[in-house]
Amino acid sequence: MEYSNFNESLLSFLMSSPTPFHATNSIRSALLAEGFVELFEEDDWVIDEAGKYFVTRNESSLIAFTLPTLEVSQSGWRMIGAHTDSPCFKLKPNAQVDRHGYHQLGVEVYGGVLMHTWLDRDLSIAGRITLKTTSGDIVSRLVDFKDPIAVIPNLAIHLNRDVNKGFSVNAQEEILPILCGAENEFDLHKMLIQQLQNQYADLSIDHILDFELSLYDTQPAALVGLHKEYIAAARLDNLLSCYVGLQALLDSNMQCPSLLVCTDHEEIGSLSTCGANGPFLEDVLRRLSPVPEQYVQAMQRSMMVSADNAHALHPNYANRHDKHHAPAINQGAVIKINSNQRYATNSETSSLYRDIAAEENYEVQSFVVRSDMACGSTIGPITAGGIGVPTIDIGLPTFGMHSIRELAGSKDAYGLYKVLTRFTQREKLMTR
């Protein structure tokens, strides 16, 4: 895929993926369009050599793979891992709040949100609704209001004179979005039923049973900067990696057994049925290598690239970085290293990645957190510790991580796609 087409398609992917459910559905649609066969975990699997397959769990996590050979114990896997979730505000079960003349929504903080960035933004609602039909079936459907229907207004400086000396937001009292004034009749469930009917004309709804809905910013993703060298969008962490991994898998050309895993709940620790700290990936891999000895052999001949955004050196906050490990945007993807195993990179996986990047003439940077600061983590150590696969943690340099609108480099995204595509075609990894 060419550079301009790659980035235009990326922007469309970001806009079509306001929640993990929608991101998974976007990836699913792209795979089906390229001839991948959908598998279902409750069925028996018939896997053919030279086949292309994918499977989802909870509608929010997905594993896709290509099998040029069924002898994966000899070839191993070329794996790319990312996550579908991002920090946000999620509606509480009893979300309707009426106070002081306004209809509002009660929300819960999901993940490490930069809360103040959500103030004064044009917000919409998307997610999954589970309902009972008039025929008695229980089904789930995805919804996306698309229009800006909510806002969390800031407090004027006249009523908070010290705001610029230090700013905090109370998650219980101060982040309730406003939908409309009390002079308008409002019922949340009626609103959700109307949206379902707008999107699914043939759906006969008896009543809503439950929902998983999130707020999101309606401002479109865009290429910005004087020379359009930056990507500005919500959810770059980590839909950017999901998209890059997807395009690399689609262009893998069936050279080696290759796999993309995009899991939910990374931002809250990954411990769920569909998270990286759950059994999803191992369940799939063991079905493809049911003989225990061959499964271990496959893992030891494999490599996982855990792709998750990295912190670029912010020119206004340069002292937050180790000056010798300060990545710059559009200067290449970052190898993330931590001696306490918050990242899974080791010298061998790092060397392999550097060698592959060199084949593409693609620059590589390194990131180590300051020794006096705590280090975050990724799905990398979780996956390495869970299935024993050699793993590297990499990421694209980003400003404003966990803000409602993040900033990354368009050249970095395309370059990583080229490197990961070559990785999926790399027949020989380490020599023992």
Automatic annotation (TrEMBL):
Signal peptide as annotated in the record: none
Keyword Protease: yes
Keywords: Aminopeptidase, Hydrolase, Metal-binding, Metalloprotease, Protease, Zinc
Pfam entry (one): Peptidase_M18
GO molecular function: aminopeptidase activity
Class of the enzyme per the UniProt entry, highest EC level: hydrolase
Top-level lineage group: Bacteria
Cofactor: Zn(2+)
PANTHER family: ASPARTYL AMINOPEPTIDASE
Entry protein name: M18 family aminopeptidase
